[in-house]
Amino acid sequence: MIKLNYLGESLCKECFLRYFEEQVMRVLKGTGLLSRLSGKLVVVATSGGKDSSNALYILKELSESYDYEVAALLVNEGIKGYREHKAKALRALCTRLGVNLIEVSMKKEMGVTIDQVALLHERGKLRLKPCSVCGVFRRYLMNIYAKEVGAEYVATGHNLDDEVQTFIMNIIRGDLQSIVREGPVTRPHIGELIPRFKPLYYLTEKESMLHFILRGLETPYVECPYAKLSMRYQLRTMINSLEQHSPGTKHRLLRVKESLRKKLGQQIIQQRLRRCSLCGMPTSHDICRACEIKIELERIIKA
Ligand code: SF4
Ligand code: ZN
């Protein structure tokens, strides 16, 4: 039996897998996505880790009933001792599921690997931490490549724990715009941005891990060496400890975020987007964040 503390219930394997799928359907139905997927291509942004592998697995399973196509996209950020192992597991999963895998090299596209970025940060030459660069470049490349293959939607493996961590991070940064914007579906402001959705939005990290094991999915247990440098990592430890003392904390925090989104969503004036003068992607400034970082890195590397 599997105990879900916050529900105060224990579920058998079959009931847990059904519960898991119901929570994914809650995202697809609740956002009106399900009725729009037919005949479309969904690209799943995958890393080879448990969450994105779960997202890929379940979206592929549902694709037969709801008549849409699925492909996987991997951005190889060039982290030695980590990326090659996860990529190997992902290739095996894509073969097992019969899903096409698109592999994109960050080095080739953006001129650097995250290993290089981490070294520059460690030497005090770059203020930005590896995750800050990795996240911006990854989202940028994901959008470009998903568009190139004709995808209508991008799915990511963000789970409930990720959402709660992001919520707290946005509070710390005082970023109300992002709190309001980040939901189970992120709608594009203009044509070039492909809508993103998060099938695991209502599922915790623990539930994701259980699903991964019960479905017989596999990944090597290597962690990105730079994860510990991020604020997210510290928050994760803190929120997990709060959850242990007071079960249901994560779900309550998500509910607070959801009511803020509903109440403030209409009142917050969305930033006007224009095109980046260098790459043409949507941005609220003259130059998008990805181009800005790329230029800064080129300048530091040349110096
Ligand atoms: Fe990139 Fe940070 Fe994730 Fe590592 S932990 S893959 S640096 S975002
Ligand atoms: Zn740009």
> Beta-sheet strand percentage?
5-15%
Rg on CA atoms, Å: 19 Å
Give the uncertain stretches in residue-range form. none
Order of helices and strands: EEHEHEHEHHHEHHEEHHHEEH
Task: Determine the fraction of residues in helical runs and give it as a percent range.
Answer: 40-55%
Give the number of DSSP strands: 10
Tell me the CATH topology: Rossmann fold
In the CATH scheme, the class would be Alpha Beta
Keywords:
303 residues, alpha/beta, Rossmann fold, six-stranded mixed beta sheet, two-stranded antiparallel sheet, 10 strands, 12% strand, binds iron/sulfur cluster, binds zinc ion
Kindly describe this structure.
The structure is a single chain. By secondary structure, the protein is an alpha/beta fold. It has a single domain, classed as Rossmann fold (3-Layer(aba) Sandwich), CATH 3.40.50.620. The chain is 52% helix and 12% strand. The protein contains twelve helices and ten strands. Strands 5-4-3-6-8-7 form a six-stranded mixed sheet, sandwiched between helices. α2 links the parallel β3 and β4. α1 packs across α9. The longest helix is centred in the middle third of the chain and has 19 residues. It is globular. The relative contact order is 0.15. The mean pLDDT is 92.
